[in-house]
Design a protein that fits this description.
heterodimer, A: mainly beta, seven-stranded mixed β-sheet, four-stranded antiparallel β-sheet, B: mainly beta, six-stranded mixed β-sheet, three-stranded antiparallel β-sheet, about 0% helix, about 45% strand
């Protein structure tokens, strides 16, 4: 079954850390760039970060640069997001998604999302 | 404040047609492909259009996309109540080196 399943969302205090995971199945994980997006309650979509199919390149939104780190394990078909120095404004549903192809920046498979709440 | 500008809401009657605009600049829409997403309440986004006008398999031809200059448009014909959702445009921004979205448009089928 072709799917992405996120996990790791939790309630954390400001300044603390959290690690999200995204388990991929049903497709050749190592063949696609992978992204994290987020959506604050009642708000629009925000791109967070992307990692190339082989893990050699990554880009980050300015809002998370220096605090978040994306990584992948192609042997385990797993994508991760390490989030440090969390802020209240990081509260959102976090989605992982895959690129349609290696040459096409469009996101054709999304996970169901995992909720991160940053609150004291 | 989103980099891409969409109308907050649009509405039309069942069976009618609606268009949703997405306005950007030369650093994003003007020089990169646009994709569109449908997000039904409480669900993850779904890809509707990629590379400005192409539809993934399984997306009906009631959904169409176009781009001109620094603007893009999503069209939906034969509106159904099941089309009620939020719609987002997205593209790469070469200046920001990241993906940018429109703020989203809520479609109401009256």
């Amino acid at each position: 079954q072709v799917q992405l399943v996120e996990s790791g969302g939790d309630v954390v205090q400001p300044g603390r850390s959290l690690r999200l995971s995204c388990a991929a199945s049903g497709f050749i994980f190592s063949g696609f760039g992978m992204h994290w997006f987020r959506q604050a309650p009642g708000k629009g979509l925000e791109w967070v970060t992307v990692i190339s199919n082989d893990g050699s390149n990554a880009y980050y939104a300015d809002s998370v640069k220096g605090r978040f780190t994306i990584s992948r394990d192609n042997s385990q078909n797993t994508l991760s997001l390490e989030m440090n120095s969390l802020r209240t404004e990081d509260t959102a549903i976090y989605y992982c998604a895959k690129d349609l192809t290696t040459l096409t920046l469009a996101f054709d498979l999304w996970g169901q999302g995992t909720l991160v709440t940053v609150s004291s | 404040q989103s980099v891409l500008t969409q109308p907050p809401s649009v509405s039309a009657a069942p069976g009618q047609k609606v268009t949703i605009s997405c306005s950007g600049s030369s650093s994003n829409i003007g020089n990169n492909y646009v994709s569109w997403y449908q997000q039904l309440p409480g669900t993850a986004p779904k890809l509707l259009i990629y590379e400005n006008y192409k539809r993934p398999s399984g997306i009906p031809d009631r959904f169409s996309g176009s781009k001109s200059g620094t603007s893009a448009t999503l069209g939906i014909t034969g509106l159904q109540t099941g089309d009620e959702a939020d719609y987002f445009c997205a593209t790469w921004d070469s200046s920001l080196s990241g993906v940018v979205f429109g703020g989203g448009t809520e479609l109401t089928v009256l």
